[in-house]
Design brief:
Number of strands: 3
Largest sheet: 3 strands, mixed
Strand content: 5-15%
CATH architecture of one domain: 2-Layer Sandwich
Strand order of the largest sheet: 1-2-3
CATH class of one domain: Alpha Beta
Shape: flat
Structural class: mainly alpha
Number of helices: 9
Helix content: 55-70%
């Protein structure tokens, strides 16, 4: 890092911007337990499933126990039966979880519901000119598999459209 800093100073003849080091500095203030908990929360909907995620939320890691808040005692009973599957799914996604939590406990508590994002409205992208589509089709004639040909055609057309809209 020092060589990079010296090169930067020589090139720009100015002090280093603080943004180059602020991330490393702040990273030291986030406890490892919190980092793991954040990773669990990120993949919770995938591991547990969207229906379970609507009623349960990873709240804390305490004494090597992952605490999951659940909004209804009926769900606590159901999740207790699924405990092994959920914990195995979390361990598969986050191998370092074993160092921080070796048990999972469900308790009645407040569930933080993820906010539903509003759908992003895409701008209408003009279709590529016919000569470009003809050229794409001509190049894809050598491919025999119709599904692959269709997927590649769509890819090339979308790539062309992306380049057009960036300009």
């Amino acid at each position: 890092m020092k060589n990079d800093d010296q090169t930067y100073r020589k090139r720009y003849k100015s002090p280093l911007p603080i943004s180059r080091h602020i991330g490393d500095f702040l990273q030291g203030f986030v406890p490892e337990k919190q980092k793991i908990l954040n990773r669990i929360r990120e993949c919770w909907g995938i591991v547990a499933g969207e229906q379970i995620a609507a009623h349960a939320y990873p709240d804390d890691i305490d004494f090597k126990t992952l605490l999951i808040n659940v909004d209804d005692p009926i769900w606590i009973n159901e999740l207790t039966l699924l405990r092994g599957e959920i914990f195995a799914g979390l361990h598969n996604r986050i191998p370092s979880l074993k160092m921080h939590a070796d048990k999972i406990r469900f308790r009645n508590g407040k569930v933080v519901k993820p906010e539903k994002q509003k759908p992003v409205r895409k701008k209408a992208i003009p279709a590529p000119p016919p000569e470009i589509i003809n050229e794409i089709d001509e190049n894809l004639k050598v491919i025999e598999d119709p599904e692959l040909k269709k997927a590649l055609r769509r890819f090339f057309i979308n790539t062309y459209e992306t380049k057009e809209t960036e300009e």
